[in-house]
């Protein structure tokens, strides 16, 4: 939160580097233009809302997960620096009945952007099964 208060645009620049794993994927799976577009949206958001949402990141929903009673697809990148696979998605199949975990190799947090070629077929296959 201190980084957001100190310099919100700089915070977003640093955040998106980790969100997209820019050091690894820039030029191959993400462009500077796409990162800039995400940054533009982020800085256009409410400054107060940006700051106020941070405590919500610590909300623990584990007690709610067993109540999910519909088929559930979990897609997660194994290179997610924001929410690492081992700490998050890898634990979910034991907590959500009738769930399926698909791990995208090399995928950062933003796998829907950087790895759409792998995510979309998994989504379509899941939807066709149900």
Structure description:
The structure is a single chain. By secondary structure, the chain is mainly alpha-helical. The protein has two domains: 59 residues; 71 residues, no CATH class. β1, α6 and β2 form a beta-alpha-beta unit. The longest helix has 14 residues. The chain is globular and about 45 Å long.
Looking at this protein, list some descriptive labels:
2 strands; 130 residues; 2 domains; mainly alpha; 48% helix; single chain
SSE blueprint:
Layout: H1 2-6, H2 8-19, H3 22-25, H4 32-44, H5 47-53, E1 72-77, H6 92-95, E2 99-104, H7 111-114, H8 116-129
Parallel strand pairs: 1-2
Helix pairs in contact: 2-4
Main sheet summary: 2 strands, parallel
Order of helices and strands: HHHHHEHEHH
Distance between the termini: 41 Å
Give the mean pLDDT.
97
> In the residues, how many domains can be counted?
2
- Percentage of β-strand residues: 5-15%
Which structural class is indicated by helix and strand composition? mainly alpha
Strand order of the largest sheet: 1-2
Task: Kindly state the number of beta strands.
Answer: 2
Report Rg: 16 Å
Q: What ranges have pLDDT less than 50 throughout 5 or more consecutive residues?
A: none
- Percent of residues in helices: 40-55%
Please state the overall shape, judged from the principal axes of the Cα atoms.
Answer: globular
| Number of helical regions | 8
